[in-house]
Amino acid sequence: MIPGHQPVLLREVLGLLAPGAGGKYLDCTFGGGGHSRAILEAARDVRVVALDRDPGAASRGETLAAEFPCRLTLIDSDFGKLGSIADSDFDGALFDFGLSSFQLDDPDRGFSFRDDGRADMRMDRRAGVPAARWLETATEEMLVRAIRDFGEETHWRRVVRALVAARGSGSLERTASLAGVICGAIPARDRRASRIHPATRSFQGIRIAVNDELGAIERALPAAFAKLRPNGVLCAISFHSLEDRPVKHFFRRMCGQPESSDDATPQDLRIRLAEPLTRRPVTPSDAETADNPRSRSAKLRAIRKL
Asked: pTM of this prediction?
């Protein structure tokens, strides 16, 4: 394991994937490589194909590949483009959505307001536009979708108005001043009562919008499932409801179950392609959350392909 990196729900993931000798596994979110390492160590001659669109993952992948010659392949790609990857017939696949510790802890990346830095927020800085530029040019409809829908911010109207008013002032360029703009839009009573920083939800929404995170999840889940061999296991770890919802709906659809209370599809029109391995999402133990507070909101779901 790379210092500073703690793979979430590692024991539970290994229990569900159950890596066997000579197996082939897909790690769609390499990050710090913790899950990939554990899979490689779990059995003889296991192979892992891993994806990550963050260029910073390349050096971590090279280090791990040197320890496991010819057993790890790291592909420089967004998992939203998983369908274009030629490899298939995997015994298991894993998604670990959200940000890695390396991204969160680097002020240069602009994901956090804990330390001031450029408001970038791109998972791949070679593509797209930084959050600061996106905030200056996005339509009001795009801002509403980011703050209200992706950030689930109660005071989204106030925040959107404040962001529009701050354009051209330079205060959207850096994380500290951007957080200040957002905080200033939240009523003081609610700022005091909140258990989280008042800018947390808006930062989440902006990040999701800049990286098209939900669109990537919706494209990647069926692509990963298609690449599994029969009896292959698909695991997904999410950290908030917006990530968990498409996972839950897709998994239920593959298992021939209603996706939600609004799903009125007749049972005889449903196709059962998988069986659930987790009736309810698996969450971290008290010991894990004490050791790694960032794991506290994690939810793990898994299905097995029939």
From this structure: 0.93
